[in-house]
Amino acid sequence: MNLSESGRRVLVSGASRGLGRALARTFAENGDRVAVHYNSRREEAERTRELLPGAGHVLVGGDVSDPAGAARVADEAFAALGGIDVLVNNAAVNLRHPLPTTSYEEWAALWQAHVSVNLLATANLSHLAARRMITQGTPGRIVNIGSRGAFRGEPDHPAYGATKAAVHALGQSLAVSLAPYGIGVASVAPGFFDTERVAHRLDGEEGAVIRAQSPFGRVASAEEIAEAVRWLASPLAEWASGTVLDLNGASHLRT
User: Fold this and answer.
1) Which of 40, 84, 79, 34 is nearest to 59 (CA)?
2) By C-alpha distance, which of 43, 76, 41, 75 is closest to 58?
3) pLDDT one-digit tens code per residue, 142-199
4) pLDDT digits (tens, 9 = 90+) for 230-241
5) What distance in Å separates the CA atoms of residue 214 and residue 103, rounded to the nearest whole number?
6) Measured between alpha carbons, how far is 50 from 233 in angstroms, rounded to an integer?
7) d(CA 145, CA 250)
8) Does residue 104 have an active-site annotation?
9) pTM of the predicted model, to two decimals?
10) Which candidate in 38, 104, 160, 181 is catalytic?
11) Which residues pair with 9 in a beta bridge?
């Protein structure tokens, strides 16, 4: 059985706003049915669902940082959609904690939070989705949202950079493990992109510095990132399984 071009069943974690909302809209515009996941921002998630074209989209709430919570989210999404063809692991936290000025207690707590959401939730949802795809006997796609910071370092957000590097490594391990079942796994590594959460940083001098990171003199839109994710989740992207796709406007080049 081939992965369809559209009409797929898609779970997007952390889809209440920002990139998650853009991801949900991009898949819905492709003719897919989307499970919009949220943790605490139900009203914003409802707004995301209202913005989606087509029918059959659902809301799924829950704390994916907890293994039992992740299982409930997955079970509800799969039941509402009738299965799963695509998982996009977008849920993440990114809290400032530079080592020189962060107390040990805060440091330890923030590392735990980053690992629980950014890495373990990604691993657990991937397991739940992949096992369902295997049981269905259908091919599928898992796309992880990583970060440029995994490669260039994040001095003010070290746990974020480290957990995103781990997400990239996880995706490559799963790409090899799941290929015999027709399941492709890839990651994207965005640089700075514009969402409502960070829009204030693009004003004034800080905004000029951020835009100057790229030789294009701008930052990405969330829609640009979402389109790349949609392609990696498409039938034509099977040979991209294992990829970590840089999406940073040449602001950081790897060798």
Assistant:
1) 34
2) 76
3) 999 999 999 999 999 999 999 999 999 999 999 999 999 999 999 999 999 988 888 8
4) 999 999 999 999
5) 34
6) 23
7) 18
8) no
9) 0.95
10) 160
11) 33
